[in-house]
Amino acid sequence: MTLHKTQMPRFVYVGKGGPLSVIPIKTLVEAGIFPEAILIPERSQSSVRLNLLPVQPPRYEDDLATIAADMGLPLISWQRGFEAEIEAKLANIGINLAIMSCFPWRIPAALLAVPEHGWWNLHPSLLPAYRGPSPLYWQIQAGETMTGISLHQVETDLDTGPIISQASCQLTDAAGLEQKLAQLGANLITEALHQLQEGNLVTTIQDENRASYQSFPGQLEKDR
Fold it and tell me: Which whole-number Å values give the CA distances from 110 to 26, 78, 96, 215, 224, in the listed order?
């Protein structure tokens, strides 16, 4: 699938914090590419709430709320059960793309349909292998020596959407693995945004014959 030529897309950045969320958005901003807003899941112990942001929110290292405050970006906190309100907010902002990394929930079809170019997701495996919510855990358990990160279109089924691009690396240093994959993923996003801007972004359908899925460690398969 080839997307039509457009200007640099207006996008919302979606994540929950940690290296896989934080490094890509910092890399984009350093490259002069800013999101219209940052979207995070509501956290039960956070003072961040939909439409109720404190004057000085709690500051945490590797936290998207802190990054939004530092950059002066609008912060949207998604509370489950308020998907219609999130849909309206995203439509009101006028985004035509959502970029997601390390977000813990499935995205409903109604939200996927808001931006014309859909949603992109960074997934820390070489899809279609190791689909699911804990891919790094399962790759380490399997004794893999190579891993990577995939940028793909989001569909209602988990991690099944067409692949935009991928990058691989050796799985030798578990301690710094998330940081390494996050930087590779940040580069993939930057390149893909420029390709979309120039009208030459091409995606590849995943090969279901090579697909595998693993759920949460020690739990039955379930929704994020």
Answer: 28, 14, 14, 25, 17
CATH number of 11-210: 3.40.50.170
**Closest CA relative to residue 118, chosen from 104, 99, 92, 90:** 99
User: Cα(117)–Cα(97) distance, rounded to whole angstroms?
Assistant: 5
Angle at which helix 19-30 crosses helix 64-71, to 10 degrees, equals: 20
Omega prior to 128 cis, within 30 of 0: yes
Domain coordinates in residue numbering, the chain: 11-210
- Shortest CA distance to 151 belongs to which of 206, 214, 113? 206
Is-above-0.85 flag for pTM? Answer: yes
Q: What is the pLDDT of residues 155-171, one digit of tens each?
A: 999 999 999 999 999 99
